[in-house]
Design goal:
The chain is mainly β and 200 residues long. The chain has helices at 11-22, 89-93, 127-130, and strands at residues 52-60, 63-69, 72-76, 99-103, 109-114, 120-125, 155-161, 164-170, 173-174, 188-189, 192-199. Residues 1-24 form the signal peptide.
């Protein structure tokens, strides 16, 4: 079974890294208007948009699941291989993308699998269409995002669960204030947001 490993990113490191850009460094989301003038920056344009993305696919409660995207299989189970069940919302929140820096957008992902009842399914998932407006999907009020914060490429997760294919987006969104007062690493949102779902 070929299955992507979950990326264990250091939230502390990421928060520190993003904070560097929040102080006025030049980035794609936070360009300096006058490179030689210390502290100058261009405010973010809302809604936030993206030109590259990270990707991984996961299969749960399936038989012989295969997901092909951007020239390779992200999942390539044997035809008789049964995948484990999804263990709930917390399990989903711990999934991350491990293929990084993919330019928007390759051809559709090709998915084939059998659901728990043995029925065979095939699908093409067109991420170009799903994310046609190129918006970074998140659940943060834009007023809570620093004007000069840098937002890295978002994760796109394709999840096959029995008969349903779902597509989620996860993005590291810097916040103006800590979610957990006293925890300096909590000024960051990284939630999996459902963008698309279809049951076959």
């Amino acid at each position: 079974m070929i299955r992507p490993r979950i990326r264990h990113a250091s939230y502390a490191f990421l928060l520190s890294f993003l904070s560097l850009f929040a102080t006025g460094c030049q980035t794609a989301m936070s360009n300096t208007d006058h490179p030689h003038e210390a502290g100058s920056f261009r405010k973010n344009s809302f809604p936030l948009k993206f030109t590259d993305h990270n990707f991984s696919a996961y299969c749960f409660s399936t038989i012989g699941c295969k997901v092909f995207y951007h020239g390779r299989y992200d999942v390539e189970d044997r035809d008789d291989e049964v995948s484990s069940p999804l263990m709930g919302p917390d399990h989903l929140q711990h999934l991350d993308a491990v293929r990084v820096g993919i330019q928007n957008f390759p051809p559709p992902a090709i998915v084939s699998w059998r659901s728990k009842d043995g029925a065979y399914h095939e699908a093409k998932i067109d991420l170009d269409e799903i994310f046609k407006d190129r918006r970074i999907v998140h659940n943060v009020d834009e007023r809570d995002i620093p004007d000069n914060a840098s937002v890295a490429d978002p994760d796109i997760l394709l999840v096959v669960n029995d008969r349903t294919i779902s597509v989620y987006m996860k993005a590291f969104i810097p916040l103006k204030h800590q979610r957990d007062p006293g925890n300096k690493y909590s000024a960051l949102s990284h939630d999996a947001i459902l963008v698309y779902a279809k049951t076959y």
